[in-house]
Design goal:
This protein is mainly beta. The protein contains one helix and ten strands. Strands 1, 2, 3, 8, 9 and 10 form a six-stranded antiparallel beta sheet that branches. The chain has a two-stranded antiparallel sheet with strand order 4-5. A hairpin with a 2-residue loop joins strand 1 and strand 2 (about 15-25).
């Protein structure tokens, strides 16, 4: 997503469905369900976002509601299907940033993938819960 000069991308997997949420400094949001039977950009997470912009930096706050296992069967276009992360079943996620300036692209990630692509699931970090 190249809106403005930089963007932030977060991917996570709840259940077996990879979701993507991208937000830029202007607060523009792109959400997509990349699952096998995913709904693409028709899907919405139901997340709440706040973008904070300073003179030389910006940040994002996000509240991600979990709709529970099997929610995809009730409404496949809304919410994050799956249970809260647990010791045996963690979420896999990455928080990434892409900054585009004229001819150069700068990519950084919480869990670096080692490639020019953020979507490398085997490199994703794990989030456990209790």
């Amino acid at each position: 997503m190249q809106c403005g000069t930089s963007s932030s991308v977060g991917r996570y997997a709840a259940s077996n469905s990879p979701y993507e949420i991208a937000i830029n400094p202007a607060g523009t949001v792109l959400e997509s369900d990349h699952g096998k039977d995913g709904k693409g950009v028709k899907w919405t997470s139901g997340a709440q976002f706040a973008v904070h912009r300073g003179d030389k930096e910006w940040s994002i706050e996000m509240r991600l509601p979990i709709t529970g296992e099997g929610s995809r069967m009730i409404d496949p276009l809304k919410g994050s299907d799956g249970a809260m992360p647990k010791d045996l079943f963690p979420w896999h996620f990455n928080v990434c940033r892409q900054r585009v300036r004229r001819t150069s692209i700068e990519r950084t990630a919480y869990s670096p993938t080692g490639k020019d692509d953020f979507y490398v699931p085997e490199k994703f970090a794990k989030l456990w819960g209790k």
